[in-house]
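// run 5 | inverse folding | seed 20
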């Protein structure tokens, strides 16, 4: 039986189920402490596997395309935050200050790695440049996101300083990533062979963080703080934000004279925000705060970007197929 087109992917359905479970059966007390420890270990494993999966040869192959990478970085770490700050007079009253802070946090995050590369590959873009750009965005985001958060949100992380937040993120995310890169020499082939089921390590880590975050948020009354109108408005805001950035990234690629393959790479790498990095990073940057309201915009934006970008990628793939068919043999 064919899967209905309107039905979300399995991970999205599981994510919604986890939020529902956290709403009905939130963890608290010693159980919450145990989940917190398990979640931290899962996050370390997640970034270790990211390091083990990423080929240094593929990164080096696309590293020389510096103009493309500068455009992607500017869209990710400059354009997004500027849009978020500029829209405060409209967004803050529309969705409330807590959700608006979540939108600002979303705007400060690095790009995705896996989905950006997957969409560029499907759309027949510059895959080598996409691998390099997405990986570099994720790594530099460990240092840039806390600084951007401090600048646009006035949040300086647990411990009172941006440097402290960067240090904690480095220890929790970057060190396992580097360890994975070192271990790739011995386990890289095994990781490649088993990538189909290892994706559940990524997804499981995110689901653990979402469950613990929403458990705390439910206990603190998140659903009484977020009326249906604010939730629907937030969905519209995420859609509009994504469409604006997609339009700007495409125009930038065209105006700066990039070829079609490079413009596709800029489009998909410059418009994404990483749930896999954003959720665990929020635990460090906003330690002691309720994360539910902060990561809710990110969760919605993540699903919307996947749905919109798969349509775009398929469109460019069809164009590439039509072009190849029209060429003389």
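// decoded
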């Amino acid at each position: 039986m064919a899967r209905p087109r309107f039905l979300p992917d399995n991970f999205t359905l599981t994510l919604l189920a986890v939020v529902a479970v956290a709403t009905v059966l939130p963890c608290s007390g010693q159980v919450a402490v145990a989940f917190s420890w398990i979640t931290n270990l899962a996050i370390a494993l997640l970034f270790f596997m990211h390091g083990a999966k990423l080929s240094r040869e593929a990164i080096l192959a696309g590293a020389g395309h510096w103009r493309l990478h500068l455009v992607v970085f500017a869209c990710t770490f400059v354009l997004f935050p500027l849009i978020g700050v500029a829209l405060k007079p409209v967004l803050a009253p529309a969705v409330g200050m807590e959700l608006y802070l979540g939108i600002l946090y979303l705007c400060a995050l690095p790009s995705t790695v896996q989905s950006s590369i997957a969409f560029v590959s499907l759309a027949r873009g510059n895959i080598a440049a996409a691998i390099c750009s997405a990986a570099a965005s994720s790594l530099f985001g460990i240092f840039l996101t806390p600084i951007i958060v401090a600048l646009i949100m006035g949040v300086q992380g647990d411990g009172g300083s941006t440097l402290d937040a960067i240090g904690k993120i480095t220890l929790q995310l970057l060190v396992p990533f580097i360890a994975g890169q070192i271990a790739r020499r011995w386990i890289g082939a095994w990781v490649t062979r088993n990538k189909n089921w290892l994706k559940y390590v990524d997804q499981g880590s995110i689901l653990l963080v979402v469950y613990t975050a929403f458990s705390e948020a439910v206990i603190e009354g998140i659903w009484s703080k977020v009326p249906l109108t604010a939730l629907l408005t937030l969905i519209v805001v995420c859609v509009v934000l994504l469409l604006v950035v997609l339009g700007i990234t495409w125009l930038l690629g065209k105006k700066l004279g990039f070829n079609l393959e490079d413009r596709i790479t800029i489009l998909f790498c410059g418009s994404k925000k990483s749930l896999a990095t954003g959720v665990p990073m929020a635990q460090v940057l906003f330690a002691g705060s309720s994360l539910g309201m902060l990561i809710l915009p990110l969760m919605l934006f993540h699903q919307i970007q996947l749905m919109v970008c798969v349509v775009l990628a398929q469109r460019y793939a069809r164009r590439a197929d039509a072009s190849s068919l029209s060429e003389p043999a």
